[in-house]
Task: structure prediction
Amino acid sequence: MASKQPQEPVIGDGSLHVGDRVVYPNQGICRITGVSVKQIAGRDWEVVTLRREEDGATVMVPRGKVMGIGLRKVADIDAIDKVFDLLAAPGNDPQLDWKIRHRENADLMSGGGLFGTVAVLKSLHALSRVRPLPQKERELYDNARHLLVGEIAAAMNIPLHVAEDNLDYALWPPPGMKRKGQVLPPATLGPPAPVVRAAEEEIGLEEDEEEAAPPPPVAAEEEEEEGEEKAAPAPPPHAPKAETPRAKAKPARHPRPAPHPAKKAKPAAKKPAAKKAPPKKAPKKKAAAKKAAAKKTKGKR
Amino acid sequence: MIRLVTLSEFPPDVIDFIARRVHAAYGMGCEFEGEGEMPSGALDEEQSAYNAVKVVEEIDDDVALYADDKILYLTREPLTAPEGPMGRGPVDGYAQYGGGKAVITSHGLGEKGLPPLEVGLAKRAAHYVGHLWDLHHCFDPRCAMHPGWSPGFAAYPDVALCLFDREKSERKIKLGST
Result:
């Protein structure tokens, strides 16, 4: 009788094998170490065990959910080349409706594969140049960047730092940077085009502004004049430059309409006082009436 | 603790300035550890610049690292990095992501369009220490993690992290083993 060779377990759609380097959208670059059966909550689960390359942590995924979570092989060099073509290409206007943006980005991150991650990074990068990213999207931007840097480094066998620098040579091209013979427009300080800003104002972003994180320092001057103190950028510990626009803005405001603030200030000061006064008096009267009533009853007794 | 090791001569006040700025950015102790030498094997093929990756890997020093200590090497020599998918770009340093060693250069600082030596070097130091704590590049031009070749580097010379990066670095430092 011929001896049977141990069959390799089928993982996902069959394209993944033990020992493969894979990308796990929520974890980063991992290596498949095996398939085993674990007893969890009294039930046997067949799990795929992964080892996260970043820190050596063990990650276990139920075998049936491997494809659902977006686990995939690390991209090849041709795909990475296309990624850089996409990154270096001029971007579209960012999606300004945060609900649509959130849904699209979540779908792209979990099921969009490598190019989905690139699309998320690129769209959030474009958005960050127009307006500040809310905290959640800032985290998403960082996650997308982390995944992409890890995958580029793994695919090209280069250090993570070199991978990230190259990624930013495409997103923030230094002067003279070329991609396939074409010189890329060098990165500028501030939004790329004022047209985008105008479109943003027309559409209105009331919903978005609630969860808006600090504004990009680039566009600070105009926004700060509007008095959006909440949206002030992450205050750098020692940032005289950041304070200068405010310092400049104040003298510009005050000399012109000197009498107006005083006029406006008076009614503003009176109103709260007038509102506060009645409730204070009312309880006193009531208390006095109660005391009088109590005295009367006492007297009667 | 962040330890500074010089591979070229730097005035003591510049080192002191860098140590204070890095300490302010990360809330970690930062001190001058000593001097070292650039590994000759790290020179690139044209012998005009040092390969930053090789410098960090091949450097031979006596600095002892404890737990989450980080070493930052400072040099005046020009640095290069291995060619990537975008070709060769400007290189002002190299860091082992989430690791313990980084090297930065003062090459080019003080020239047209770039901040003076101590300010520029302090910002680069904070940037590369950030990489050692797993921070990625940031789109905020005032943040120290903004790419060093972009116009924001010269426009905002203050050494400061944006709120997101500051919180992330604090989380990483708290989770550290020291």
